[in-house]
Amino acid sequence: MNNKEYLISLFESDKPLIIYKANQGYYIYTDFSDKKIVTKSNINTFIKKIFSPRKLRNKFFDGYIGFFGYQTCCELIGIKIPKQKNNSLSKSIFYKPQTVIKMNKKIFIKSLVPNFKSLKNLKKTHKKFYYENKFNVNISLNQYSTIFRKFTKKIKKGETYQIKICQKYRNKSKIDSVKYFWKLMEVNSSPESFLIRDKNFSIVSCSPETLFYKHKQKIFTKPIAGTLKKSSHLSKRKAKMFFKKNIKENKEHNMIVDMERNDLSKICKSGTVKISKLKYVEEYKDLYHYVSKINGKLKEKIKTIDIIKAMMPGGSVIGCPKINTLNLLNHLEKDSRNIFTGSFGYIKSNYDMRFNIIIRSLLNYKGINEISVASGIILGSKAKKEYEENHIKAKSLLDIFKE
To answer: Does any domain span residue 121?
Structure first.
């Protein structure tokens, strides 16, 4: 079996795997030797295990890849979440791969597993897939407007300056997550796209946002704050002019950039946190985004857990100030965010990390598809416009079901 045939067989099987977008092509991770459900109580032990001194066996990827759910991100910084409607998916899960495939023009495979191409490990799935076209929305425009007015009062009282309302689209489907992922990549391949296929759930994402990338002592974050629907008369240049002239979009963006600079300043050396690229535009299938990039140099002997606590959950999908806003959100939102606004990425044994923000993502669990989106509220925001913006953000994921 050549590499291409093996890859096709892997995709057609029900074997757990992860696909992660790279600068050029994709990385596929499988043959997981360990799977950890990570919580507030065991995260220090988990991190210590990754970095425990030992001879490197897996030189091409020595570490864990997976996700922190929103609830774990909150719990790590002492934020309590009241009882909410929840689908009971584990809060955070990480995997240790023994086989890594680089898929570009050519397919390269590195594995620690003897006979990893063996067909007995690649049994073709016999699951029955079914797709519904219609999605139900958990919050109507009237309900959204009521929440919007409550949050607007909180802003006027100074309890928050910007806050993001989460909205969910759901339907009953059992999807072929690999096929769905590749269809999504054809129309909206984003920098932080990923897929997790496990035995009882899958996550498919075209996330555009890097929460942080840490390499040695350097770290950067790339906050997104500002969304504009694409149309036939708009270009990237015109989108930039729109953002530049729009007072509301600029206020929202400035708040998030300041908050992310503050988050980085907790873990970086004084004077090293700098905006390397301010207010530029990225283009996606259905929209344009307003983006900035902020760099810093980490303090000496900074701990991995300190970086995670400082940066998660990502401010651009919460609002600011972070702690007050999280408390407001968690008490007014009745539906658990689950994976939404958590973080997917990896932690390597050499302390390097990369994590995104889990947005533009579909969770398939217990035969239910769940797509979560959120838009920002500041003084001057309009409820109907923000409600419609949520649909724009979900559109590339919803449209796959119409094909």
So the answer is: no
**Distance (Å, rounded) from C-alpha 63 to C-alpha 60?**
10
Closest to 56 measured CA to CA, from 113, 112, 117: 112
Specify the number of domains making up the chain: 1
Peptide bond into 313 cis (omega under 30): yes
pLDDT tens sequence across 357-366: 999 999 999 9
Q: What is the mean pLDDT of residues 313-326?
A: 90
What is the pLDDT, as a whole number, of residue 390?
92
The answer to whether residue 12 sits within a structural domain is yes
Give, to the nearest 10 degrees, the angle between helix 177-188 and helix 383-399.
120
Cis peptide bond N-terminal to 321, omega within 30: yes
CATH of the domain at 337: 3.60.120.10
The per-residue pLDDT for range 185-230, each reduced to its tens digit, is 999 999 999 999 999 999 999 999 999 999 999 999 999 988 898 9
Report in angstroms the alpha-carbon separations of 236 from 185, 188, 392, 395, 399. Answer: 21, 16, 17, 20, 23
DSSP E strands: which ranges in 22-104? 26-37, 63-68, 92-103
Any domain includes 128: no
Domain that holds residue 396: 3-115+138-402
